[in-house]
Predict the 3D structure of the following.
Amino acid sequence: MDDLTDLVVRSRAGDLEAYGRLVERTQRMAQAVAFGVLRDASLAEDAAQEAYVRAFRRLGDIQDSAAFPGWLRRIVVTVALNARRARRHTWLCLDDIADVPVLDEAETVWSEQQRARLASALLTLTPDDRRLCDRRYHGHWSVARLARDAGVDEPAMRKRLQRVRDRLRKEIEMSEQRALGSAPVRPDFPARIVELLARPRLNDLPENPVGQVLATLRRFHADFDEIDLPEIVDFETARETIGDDALYVDPAELHRVDARRILRYDLTLPLLTTVRFDGRPLRLWATGKAYRQGRVDATHLEAFHQAEVLYADERRRLDPWRVTARVLETVDALLPGRAVKIVPTTYTMCSQAWELEIDDHRAWFEVLAWGVFTDKIVRHLGGDPAIHTAIGFGCGLERLAMLRFGIDDIRKIESARVA
């Protein structure tokens, strides 16, 4: 089979046979992209044909032959959008179809609609590549800034971005072609689960309010080991090992992936199912998104960010009141001078627990909680309750960010910038 790059070079030199092969190699993709905009197979075929005519006339514009798929995709999207606009007064509202991601170097920002279209493809990336995409397309980082952060030169970063876009393009082309054939996208996951998992991880964006709050929290836990936790939890296994204490929220709030698995509703459960204590002092720290079904309003989200801390040690060395002092010091660094209120509460996993509420214009706002785990949880971790104890501390990063930066609606945080 002819190499795609070689076909582009030959086509640019006027080789019509090579261009015909180029069309054969890419026409399924082009028609699927057009169909995603127009939702009509006949119109999509017409738009793809027009796009190939335009592309042939402009082949001299391509600087890098390897960039042809993304370059062609942009032309197809433009032609299809023009066709959609020309007909919108009779049969289609422009808001009916989400924006189509182009996936080339000229695209530096993805809208929420585009991100939803990319959701399934984003899940195939490594955590480092996901972070790169979030910083480039959500955080609006320049190539120069990305290169400095990674410790590489700009050409190397451009190549890495191109590889990531190529991977995403292949994945989304497969989903577009399945849609063209009326087959479901990602049949192994419900679409809502995929969309939630693919949302930006704001803790990776230091200029976002969540990233700023996290940076302060990290300074107070610099002596802790940071770990990554799975976002999908085998809930039935957790209930078998921990019991009914594994759930302290309404079951209706769980996002179920299938009969056994859920999206984590907090970081505590995946922490307890992942970590083991061998008697040596344990100081762990984790951050990431959690997911709960329910209302979305000025103070609640379905996908939100948390930080979680776990202490495990001998009882004589681990005092809950010293942990409380550390919690208060951390909050004072984030919200200096604010009045706070410690409120005793109950959690199924804890023998003692407290919530911290912050005064916000004479209204009390709960932002975090901590507690001493039960003997049952200590045994589950691998400790001896007669000798050992464990304490957990968790906080909602969006809520702390709202208070610190005076944001009146939690839904505004994703697009906010503070640096």
Remarks:
- The mean pLDDT is 87.
